[in-house]
Specification:
By secondary structure, this protein is α/β, with parallel strands linked by helices. It has one domain: Phosphoglycerate mutase-like (Rossmann fold, 3-Layer(aba) Sandwich). The chain is built from seven helices and seven strands. The protein has a seven-stranded mixed β-sheet. α2 packs parallel to α3. It is globular.
Length: 230
């Protein structure tokens, strides 16, 4: 498990009444379980691919791990792989699942349905720009990193505002978690990814007075023995 200590600054102000910080809002954000396309290194994007047998086992494991966290709400992307993952937690916690299209994966346009090897062969120039993480580049017919960040900023700000001071679970996608991690750590969109985003890894984000902080990232202890049940 990777853990991160919140960066806390202290300011001394004389002759003023002490202020009390807002109660933290805690977001438990989970990537969906594995699909056959994940295993085959095939780009999914907005293509609606269901969970594999492994993915369903991972969903049950994360549901068991999160069922008693006391969430005020549970949200999911409307794509099947995320929704199927969220349903296990929602059922065990007895909390209605709320589906939000704004939590969808990045739209990869003409890259969708292809492996990276196929993308390199068909779209070598576009792949180079994609790999370089140019924030304004969008695959033909798809979504740029900058547009994705704007969409997700609105979606996550809405959830955080709606549940200020509460804990919520959010089931979404790898590209979404990439943007969320960068927002909470200040890492720019164009820099290479130096953190992992495993299927059904558990990630905790804290929001206090508009400041986003990573509390823990890529927790996977709940996945021990998952493959043994298959």
């Amino acid at each position: 498990m990777l853990t991160f200590q919140p960066r806390i600054g202290h300011t001394i102000v004389e002759n003023r009444k002490p202020t009390h910080p807002a109660r933290p809002t805690r977001l438990c954000v989970v990537r969906h379980g594995e699909t056959d396309w994940n295993a085959g290194k095939r780009i999914q994007g907005h293509i609606d691919v269901p969970l594999s047998a492994v993915g369903h086992a991972q969903a049950r494991a994360v549901g068991n791990a999160l069922a008693n966290e006391g969430f005020a709400a549970i949200y999911s992307s409307d794509l099947t792989r995320a929704r199927q993952t969220a349903e296990a937690t929602a059922q065990l916690a007895n909390i209605p699942l709320q589906v939000l299209p704004g939590l969808r994966e990045r739209h990869y346009g003409s890259f969708e349905g292809l492996t990276y090897t196929e993308i390199v062969a068909r779209y070598p120039e576009d792949y180079g720009r994609h790999k370089a993480r140019e924030p304004r580049f969008a695959p033909p017919g798809g979504e740029s990193l900058a547009a994705l960040a704007a969409r997700l900023g609105l979606t996550f700000d809405t959830i955080a505002h709606r549940h200020a001071g509460e804990a919520v679970a959010i089931f979404t996608h790898g590209g979404v978690l990439d943007i969320l991690y960068r927002r909470a750590t200040g890492q720019p969109l164009h820099t290479p990814r130096d953190f992992t985003i495993p299927n059904t890894g558990i990630n905790w984000i804290e929001v206090v007075d508009g400041a986003w902080t990573v509390l823990s990232w890529a927790e996977r202890d709940h996945l021990t023995g998952v493959l043994d049940e298959l």
